[in-house]
Description:
Elements: E1 4-13, H1 17-28, E2 34-37, H2 44-51, E3 57-62, H3 89-97, H4 103-119, E4 126-129, H5 137-149, E5 154-155, H6 165-183, E6 191-193, H7 203-211, E7 216-222, H8 238-245, H9 248-256, E8 259-261
Parallel strand pairs: 1-2, 1-7, 1-8, 2-3, 3-4, 4-5, 6-7
Helix pairs in contact: 1-2, 1-8, 4-5, 5-6, 7-9
Amino acid sequence: MTNKLLIVNADDFGLCAEITTGIIKAHTEGIVTAASIVANGQYFKEGIALLKNTGLDPGVHLTLVGKEKPISGPINGLVDAEGYFLANYREAAVRIVSGRFDRTALKKELFGQVGLIRDYGIIPTHLDSHQHLHLLPAIRNIALEIAKKFNIKWVRLPSSNPTGLQEIGVNLLSRALKSGAKQQKLCFTDYFLGFQERGRMNEERLSLILQRLKPGLAEMMVHPGCDASGKYNWDYRWEDEIKALTSEKVKKIIKEQGITLTTFKKM
């Protein structure tokens, strides 16, 4: 493959109105081609109705953290006293790695999230997760089971320049997921972009990434949205990402660099 093919995939579709409508704007007026759906999001039902009127390629964004409620009931070890998923993904990851959770309930929840998306008439083409928790060994095998059962062809393999311990850890975990995905004959892109920018992509950074894009198929993770800082304390720059993803300068660079925007479904 010598062409530069790029899937621009927006995370957190359905999480809330601000993020969901921002993703749609970044698609209809910009370069976003795919979106990963949060089945237990506050704006899931409304978002699905909007999604059906777009050309967005839908995927599933498995969610086990972030103060949303499980759709299948509480999961011992992974919810707070009120039944919501833990707000802190690091705390959730520690509990998952140490096995301090109800595995049966967790598996039911993850299968249920994909099932709910399908029940609303959406067939996911790709799978990833909130805070990349599908990389953890206890979740990884369940994610691969889900992909096999629901015929989800594409699985996200996050990666990054190894600038710190977190990036090194993600790269190592992605290698293990890649091995499992190969065994099940699942697909993954040649490159993954956007890990270091996560939630803080801007026009300058996006332009540089596009100018350096190598031949092959790449997935770029983005987080556009209207300002949702009142709901989520993530230090994300949702509106900056919308501006970058709808920028005429960015569109010009894509044309000049011979980049073809595509989707998982088309591959």
